[in-house]
Write a structure and sequence with these properties.
This protein is α/β, with parallel strands linked by helices. The protein has one domain: Leucine Aminopeptidase, subunit E, domain 1. The chain is built from four helices and six strands, in the order ββααββαβαβ. Strands 1-6-5-2-4-3 form a six-stranded mixed sheet. A hairpin with a 2-residue loop joins β3 and β4. α1 crosses α2 and α3 packs parallel to α4. The longest helix is centred in the middle third of the chain and has 18 residues. The chain starts with a strand and ends with a strand.
Length: about 140
Amino acid sequence: MNFKEETRDLFTVPQGYYLAHCISGDYSLGAGIAAQFVDVYNMRYKLHRNYPIPDGEKFANVGEALLIDNVFNLVTKDRVYHKPTYDTLIKTLEDMKQQCENLDIDKIAMPRIGCGLDDLSWDTVEEIIKKVFEDTDMEILICTL
């Protein structure tokens, strides 16, 4: 795995990268970088269209990486006002890794996931990302502004 961190806008990475970011299972996407995914990709609408929440349910399954176009939406918590755990982050990253292997995806760009409004420690998250992807040939690009 090739892990690197750059100061750049996530939405300006070269073609060939898939993007990843954390979301809540209620598809709120109302703040932080998730709101930018709504603006750039109309992501809330696409999530509801491609991954409808079943009748009687209030949110999508935590631990899933929902792929839409070239974006992995990592469902790390039930509701927008909840906080993710390191365990839910690991589950979503493992799901994303499996999908990447199945689809021959080898480049992922993401912000410091879970560390903005979600308050996880970047040092811990960085270790988790490196551990999950250590046995792959993937390139993981972390974009910070």
